[in-house]
Amino acid sequence: EVPMTTLTSLDSEALNRLHDTVRAEYEAFKARGLKLDMTRGKPSPEQLDLSNPMLTLPGNGDFFAEGNVDARNYGGLQGLPETRALFSQMVQAPADQIVVGDNSSLALMHGTIAAALLKGVPGSKAPWSDGAPTFLCPVPGYDRHFAICEEFGIRMIPVPMTGQGPDMDAVERLVADPAVKGIWCVPKYSNPSGETYSEETSRRLAAMETAAPDFRIMWDNAYSVHHLTQDHHTVPDILALCAEAGNPDRAFIFASTSKVTLAGAGLAFFASSPENVRWYLERASFRTIGPDKLNQLRHVRFLKDDAGLERHMAAQAAIIAPKFEALLETLEAKLGGTGAAEWLRPAGGYFVTVDTVEGTAKRIVTLAKEAGIALTPAGATSPYGRDPHDRTLRLAPTFPSLSDVRAASEGIALCILLAAIEKQTG
Ligand code: PLP
After folding, report:
1. Residues 205 and 330 placed together within one structural domain of the fold
2. Can you give the CATH number for the domain in which 97 is found?
3. Rounded average pLDDT over 111-136
4. ipTM of the predicted structure?
5. Which of 273, 304, 335 is the last residue of a domain?
6. For the chain, what is the domain count?
7. Residue 124 phi, psi (nearest 5)
8. What residues contact 56, with CB distance under 8 A and at least 6 apart?
9. Which segment of the chain is annotated as a signal peptide (predicted)?
10. What are phi and psi of 161, to 5 degrees?
């Protein structure tokens, strides 16, 4: 059994004994021949089942939206008014400043950045690609955000997260460079740390002086309604804060129902200032004659209103909260007090971030793989996949079954402990 004492306080004899014990436990775990996957933040089949009733909606006789709009036909680039109204609270923007895209918010982020590079955004003197466009990347962050930057050759500068969002002293210093065009933000239940930006962080982002007149906050509110506890976090209205500070066009908001309804067949949202929405719709008009309005109607018929959305998200939480609990309990039982790892208990979102002993994350992922547990590659939460401390693990407990999460958590804790002991024994 694991001692509730820090590893560093053990003498070398005690440490060697512990090494033998933990190694034996690890080998026993490995011998179970399990095949477990804690890599991606996907909803489980059980969560997707919650939205099965939506699959028969709107039905073959219900295709007229408000204002006698035939949802089967072309048009309606901005999205149905009733869909924009339904998601106005979740997206935190007035309905007339929301655009309903297709099924992926990541695609909308990719598209807005591509357009910014080629044509610029409101406030640009030239397309972003004329310079050496650079983004600030709060770390740990979402690997797919960083991948978009890498894909387009946008330079990335890591900025540490603080528990209240990004280190704003660093951000304010870095935006004095006119090449810095944007910052990635997951303001609520952040991917992957789970932290929520404070009021002060949000205010400073909205008000800071940026050398680039066309600087953008990529406000990816992917987990806006994805609570795990009764403590529902809130973030300020970023569009209002930016407008108040005299920077009305600074924030691009993104969100989706990928983890509300269906991860392959949900709705994605872009929201911003009236000027940015005009800009966005003009770009979109060259790309499509209109979105899938039947899916928009389907979501309205299914979720109905804010109360319906809230009930649905409570049902989601009831499925996944026990998985987070199982993971956190196991980490606490196996690693608490050892000094081998630190983690936050997230109040929402899809991830648990574990900071291990410096220089052991890669080793842990390898040990886990050999024991049949797939983990996200070490480094994935940093730009270019490089974690200079080789310390951060991102764990995603939503997709596997509860019993698989329990088993995987046990195995992961053993790997973390074993790697920490190996590091210390040299
Ligand atoms: N943004 C964040 C922060 C995410 O964690 C994810 C998915 O994990 C996405 C965006 C992807 O969203 P979508 O399915 O709408 O493309």
Report:
1. no
2. 3.40.640.10
3. 98
4. 0.99
5. 304
6. 2
7. -75, 140
8. none
9. none
10. -85, 155
What residue's CA is closest to ligand 1, atom 4? 222
Q: With respect to residue 57, please indicate whether it lies within any of the assigned structural domains.
A: no
From ligand 1's centre to the CA of 74, what distance in Å?
27
List CB contacts of 145: < 8 A, sequence separation 6 or more.
Answer: 109, 137, 184, 218, 220
What mean pLDDT do residues 342-365 have?
97
User: Quick one: average pLDDT of 139-150?
Assistant: 98
Protein residue closest via CA to atom 6 of ligand 1: 222
User: How far apart are alpha carbons 163 and 32 in whole angstroms?
Assistant: 37
Q: Given the CA of residue 223, which atom of ligand 1 is nearest to it?
A: 3
What whole-number distance in Å separates Cα of residue 80 and Cα of residue 291?
Answer: 10
Rounded CA-CA distance 144/161 in Å is: 18
**pLDDT at position 73 over 50:** yes
Tens of pLDDT along 184-237?
999 999 999 999 999 999 999 999 999 999 999 999 999 999 999 999 999 999
Q: Quick one: 108 and 223 in the same domain?
A: yes
105 Cα: distance to centroid of ligand 1 (angstroms): 6
Ligand 1 atom closest to the Cα of residue 107 is 16
Ligand 1 centroid to Cα of residue 109, in Å, is 10
- Find out whether the beta carbon of 143 lies less than 6 Å from any atom of ligand 1: no
Contacts of 2 (CB under 8 A, 6+ apart): 22, 333, 334, 335, 338, 417
pLDDT at 5 (0 to 100): 73
Measured distance CA(241)–CA(249) in Å, rounded: 11
With contact defined as beta carbons under 8 Å apart, do 295 and 373 qualify?
Answer: no
The CATH number of the domain holding residue 377 is 3.90.1150.10
DSSP 3-state of 183? strand
Q: 268 CB under 6 A from ligand 1?
A: yes
Determine if ligand 1 sits within 6 Å of the CB of residue 222. yes
Task: Decide whether any atom of ligand 1 lies within 6 Å of the 106 Cβ.
Answer: yes
The verdict on pTM exceeding 0.95 is yes
Q: Cα–Cα–Cα angle for 29, 9, 363, nearest 5°?
A: 40
Preceding peptide of 192 cis, ω within 30°: yes
Which residue out of 42, 48, 191, 259 has the highest number of ligand 1 atoms within 8 Å of its CB and is therefore the one to mutate? 191
145 and 278, same structural domain?
A: yes
The atom number, within ligand 1, closest to the CA of 142 reads 3
Picking from 380, 346, 324, 382, the residue whose alpha carbon sits closest to that of residue 194 is 346
